[in-house]
Every structure is written in structure tokens, then in C-alpha cells.
Design goal:
12 helices; five-stranded mixed beta sheet; 288 residues; alpha/beta; elongated
Length: 288
């Protein structure tokens, strides 16, 4: 495996340097290089070609678990451990998780809703339980704030909105999109943290008029909305090809829209929904 790593990186670094770092003899590497590849080596090279292809298709967002699922879906049988070994030897590494930073403000005196979810993030049908939260996006023109609404059943983002300001208007615009596309029935639970944006009078009245049951996590307990925070952690890691900041707000808007509507909802697979994308899972289980 070390010889293969040297061979795949010899165009970027000297063979001598690689051998010294990995603790192998340079002559042994060249002797290995002259040997005809074994059947296993040929299989690994063919598999690695597919792994590289999937890795590029998903812009470095997939690690070995998801790449293994895609390979199996394409009729290529292999273990996750084998995929992980080949990726490590080839220097393929999924993007690292970024720290999630809270942006909602819970130090206020607005009325609060009780927690109807109690960390039971389960739903047996679409539009039974929605989660929502807010995060920030850095651009060189200034901050943008993103509010997203996630359907627990399929993990689908059913509504979202970007704004330069952090107030309840951000939530209303996300609800506009969610109600336009989904039209949930009375009894849908809308669960969030205790942020002032969600506790605002206009938001509480709107949810009540729509028959939506408002639910809020306990004070200062991130686990009470853990699924939504997990989504934002992945979102921040995978958005914008790893950029730390976008040049303009428009560039950020285009990237967010493409990620949420084209990639996350329609392409990105989730282990919690049988390794399907949210759209695939809904079409299979609740065809319209």
C-alpha cells in the first residue's frame, strides 16, 4: 500500500523523499514498480478510478461510507474498509467538519412554546415534523443569514431564505416557500430553539392561524434541536467548494440555492433514509 501511495504522488514529490517519510527502501520501491501488477492490484486500481470519479462528482463532500453506498448502487461490490484504505493511500479526504455557531438570540422576554418533540426526531409521513434554525454565511460584502426548514421524515429542506438582517422576516420568507410547496395540514409541528425570531408575535400568530403547532427547545440545550444543527454542520462544511468567504452576496445566494435545491435535496444520500436523497425517498414512499 505504501508503494502505491508513493507511485500516485511521485509527480508532486520526489521518490526519495516519499520513501524516507514512509520508511521504505528506494530500491524496493523500484523493484515493486518493475513487477507486473497482481490481479488484486488491477482490481484496486479499477476501484480507485471509480472512487476518484465519485469523489469529484460530489466535490470532495463524500467520505468512504457514502462513496461505498454509491459504488454498491452502481453494481460495484466492495467493503467500506477497502474504500477507506484506497482513499487514504490516494490522499482523498472528505472535507472536515466545521464548528457550528449559533446566531439566534434567546435572551428576550417574548412568550415561549413548550417542547413537544423531546428529542424524538421521528416522523412517519411528510409534513408531520418540521425543524428550523438560522446560521450565518460570510461574504466580503458583509454577512448573510440563512434560515432553513427541514422535514424530519425525508430530511428535505422545504423552505429557506437569505437576508442581510437577522429578524423575524427571515423566518416568514422561509415559511412562505414551505407553505407554497408543501401546504401542511393542521397539526404539523414546527420545532426551533428559543430565538427571538421564532418567538416574535407575527411568527407565533401566523403559525397558529395555519394550524401549525409551535414547539421550542429548552433553554441553552443544543441537543433539543440536534438534527437541525447536524444539517447546518454538514451545510457549512460542504457549501461553496470549501471557501471560507464568498466574494459577493450574490455569489453566496447562487451557491446556497444550488446546494439546497439541486444537490442536497436531489442528490446527496442520507444513511437515515436508506441511503437515498430526500426527493428519492419521498417519491418512493409517498408518490404523488
Amino acid at each position: 500500500m505504501r508503494y502505491r501511495f508513493i507511485d500516485s504522488h511521485r509527480h508532486r514529490y520526489s521518490v526519495r523523499g516519499l520513501c524516507q517519510v514512509l520508511g521504505v527502501c528506494e530500491k524496493s520501491y523500484y523493484a515493486w514498480k518493475k513487477r507486473s501488477p497482481s490481479a488484486r492490484d488491477r482490481e484496486n486500481q479499477a476501484l480507485l478510478s471509480q472512487i476518484r470519479l465519485i469523489f469529484r462528482e460530489h466535490k470532495g463532500r463524500y467520505g468512504s461510507p457514502r462513496i461505498s453506498c454509491v459504488l454498491r448502487a452502481r453494481g460495484i461490490r466492495c467493503s467500506e474498509n477497502r474504500v477507506a484504505r484506497l482513499m487514504k493511500a490516494d490522499g482523498l479526504r472528505a472535507r472536515m467538519k466545521k464548528r457550528y455557531i449559533r446566531t439566534t438570540h434567546s435572551s428576550h422576554h417574548l412568550p415561549l412554546a413548550r417542547d413537544f418533540v423531546q428529542r424524538a426526531f421521528r416522523a412517519s409521513r411528510p409534513d408531520q415534523l418540521w425543524l428550523s434554525d438560522i446560521t450565518y454565511i460570510r461574504t466580503r460584502e458583509g454577512w448573510l443569514y440563512l434560515n432553513a426548514i427541514l422535514d424530519v421524515y425525508s430530511r428535505r429542506i422545504v423552505g429557506w431564505s437569505l437576508s442581510r438582517t437577522l429578524d423575524e422576516t427571515l423566518v416568514h420568507h422561509s415559511l412562505d416557500m414551505a407553505f407554497f410547496h408543501r401546504r401542511p395540514g393542521p397539526g404539523t409541528i414546527f420545532h426551533t430553539d428559543r430565538g427571538s425570531q421564532y418567538a416574535a408575535t407575527s411568527v407565533r400568530l401566523r403559525l397558529k392561524n395555519e394550524g401549525i403547532l409551535q414547539s421550542m427547545s429548552r433553554k441553552g440545550n443544543c441537543y433539543d434541536n440536534a438534527m437541525m444543527e447536524s444539517f447546518f454542520s454538514s451545510f457549512k462544511r460542504e457549501l461553496g467548494d470549501g471557501k471560507t468567504a464568498f466574494s459577493t452576496r450574490r455569489e453566496a445566494y447562487i451557491a446556497v440555492k444550488d446546494y439546497l435545491e439541486n444537490y442536497y435535496n436531489r442528490v446527496r444520500i442520507h444513511s437515515g433514509i436508506e441511503n437515498m436523497s430526500p426527493v428519492q425517498f419521498e417519491k418512493l414512499n409517498f408518490p404523488t
